[in-house]
């Protein structure tokens, strides 16, 4: 029997891990750390640093090379094939290092139940018992960094992706949007008048960058800054909140 703990690690800052997350790490028999290529070496370095700082037990740590997602026009099919390949690698490492069973832990950015696919991948391992240890999400880190509320009074918020925003535009069901997994600054596809943006990259880390203001004034600046940061670090994790500007009238 294999138990899999998906442990939320926030944005990579060891201070973002809960006590439950630290306990789960120390209770594990094996921690798998994915390598994503030289251009993203900082990502595994952050996971290594978390292990070095928070592990107080002798837990086996194994690194493995992540497969690349196929670059195909059928996005969903490509992602499903990619998830199959990752699951196969996990099973290979489990068979090699936990042949008699045990507890496997994976350190997942943010909260594993919100926007990461580790839960979907773990579900491909037959007979595995899966547990999620929630972590601080990038949504929380963004609103905290800017000192703002997630929503306007009595208004809903929609969480979406950059791809969805580019393809379908602003949805009718909300005046506030949280946009994540946006590699192409989808906010540039929107008419900027009357929209405000709160943007953050590398939230909670020493290289954190923030910007906010009217989209018409800050949009191009954010896109330029994002491109420069990605070039400098080889990777970027960012998120932003968009909100329609309105005047609140008391009844």
Describe the protein:
With 251 residues, this protein is of the alpha/beta class. It has two domains: 2-136, 3-Layer(aba) Sandwich (Cobalt-precorrin-4 Transmethylase, domain 1); 139-244, Methyltransferase, Cobalt-precorrin-4 Transmethylase, Domain 2 (2-Layer Sandwich), CATH 3.30.950. It contains seven helices and ten strands. It has helices spanning 19-27, 41-54, 75-97, 118-122, 138-146, 162-168, 215-233, and strands at residues 2-8, 30-35, 60-65, 102-108, 129-133, 157-161, 176-180, 195-201, 209-214, 238-244. α6 (162-168) links the parallel β6 and β7 (176-180). The model has no long low-confidence stretch (mean pLDDT 92). It holds the Pfam family TP_methylase. InterPro entries: 4pyrrol_Mease, 4pyrrol_Methylase_sf, 4pyrrole_Mease_sub1, 4pyrrole_Mease_sub2, CobF. It catalyses: precorrin-5 + S-adenosyl-L-methionine + H2O = precorrin-6A + acetate + S-adenosyl-L-homocysteine + 2 H(+). Keywords: Cobalamin biosynthesis, Methyltransferase, S-adenosyl-L-methionine, Transferase.
Write down the CATH topology of the largest domain: Cobalt-precorrin-4 Transmethylase, domain 1
Q: Which sequence of strands runs across the widest sheet?
A: 3-2-4-1-5
- Nearest-angstrom radius of gyration? 20 Å
User: How would a textbook summarize the main sheet?
Assistant: 5 strands, parallel
Task: Give the C-level CATH assignment of the largest domain.
Answer: Alpha Beta
Structural class, please?
alpha/beta
Number of domains: 2
Helix fraction, binned, reads 25-40%
What is the CATH superfamily classification of the largest domain?
Tetrapyrrole methylase, N-terminal domain
Can you write the helix and strand succession as a string? EHEHEHEHEHEHEEEHE
Overall pLDDT metric: 92
**Secondary structure tally, helices:** 7
Detail the poorly predicted runs: none
């Amino acid at each position: 029997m294999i138990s899999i703990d998906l442990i939320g690690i926030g944005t990579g800052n060891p201070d973002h891990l809960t006590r439950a997350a630290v306990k789960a790490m120390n209770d594990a028999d094996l921690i798998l750390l994915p390598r994503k290529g030289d251009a993203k070496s900082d990502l595994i370095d952050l996971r290594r640093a978390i292990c070095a700082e928070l592990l107080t037990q002798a837990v086996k740590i194994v690194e493995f090379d992540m497969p690349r997602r196929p670059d195909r026009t059928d996005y969903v099919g490509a992602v499903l094939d990619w998830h199959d390949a990752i699951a196969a690698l996990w099973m290979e490492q489990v068979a090699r290092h936990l042949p008699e069973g045990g507890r496997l832990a994976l350190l997942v950015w943010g909260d594993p139940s919100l926007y990461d696919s580790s839960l979907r991948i773990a579900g491909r391992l037959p007979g595995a018992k899966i547990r999620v240890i929630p972590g601080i999400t990038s949504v929380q880190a963004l609103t905290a960094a800017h000192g703002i509320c997630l929503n306007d009074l009595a208004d809903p918020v929609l969480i979406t992706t950059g791809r969805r925003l580019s393809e379908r535009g602003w949805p009718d069901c909300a005046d506030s949007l949280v946009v994540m997994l946006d590699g192409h600054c989808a906010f540039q596809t929107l008419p900027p008048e009357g929209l405000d943006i709160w943007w953050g990259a590398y939230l909670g880390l020493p290289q954190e960058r923030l910007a906010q203001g009217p989209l018409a004034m800050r949009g191009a600046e954010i896109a330029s800054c994002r491109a420069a940061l990605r070039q400098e670090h080889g990777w970027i994790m960012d998120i932003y909140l968009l909100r329609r500007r309105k005047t609140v009238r008391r009844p």
